[in-house]
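>> received
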Amino acid sequence: MSGDAITIKGPDGNFMGYLARPSAGQGPGIVVIQEIFGVNKVIRDIADGLAARGFFALAPDLFWRLQPGVQLTDKTEAEWKQARGLMQRFDADKGVQDIQASIDALRAMDGINGKVGAVGYCLGGFLAYLTAARTNADASVGYYGIHIQEKLDEAARIRKPLMLHMAEGDDFVPPPAQAKIQAGLKTNPHVSIHRYPSVNHAFARPGGKHYDHACADLANTRTTTFFRQHLN
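>> returned
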């Protein structure tokens, strides 16, 4: 299965996205929120996988203001350096506005049942948390989101289901940050957190240094079930 490039109308201008459609031509929508490597093959494959499970999956190019069409891998130090530079310059507030525009674009498509969720990884996991707090997404999922501990003041704004997948051995989200996140979210009944022992950041990125097949399958199964529960 392969998707199409589409144009999304945002508050600050138009930007591109990768859209994968379910074979049935109808179902819920999911915004797939990129890592720091852009809308690369990993993200497109995730969108294709969601489409195979019956969802419209749209991966917006959130780096369009900085460098449209970024497609990096995690295989070379040069690409890591470029990706880190993009993340440092990235405006998360603007990114969430673009995610809302992507949600709106999905809801306007023929075949969408009206329900739209979001799923993100790393930087996208952080943005998925902000999406739950700031947008009208019906359900959100974040994988090993960075910086969430810095935005816990927004937790009270989360009024739709949010699932977080946390790697206990995450080099980018150390134990004190994880404890702070859990403490800051434990009183919100809309939030569920799954912890994965002995795995590191990006354990669900196929081909990545820390990919863990068993934990990735478990997390992805939980995500699919979560979306079927809340978006149908």
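>> The chain has a mean pLDDT of 97.
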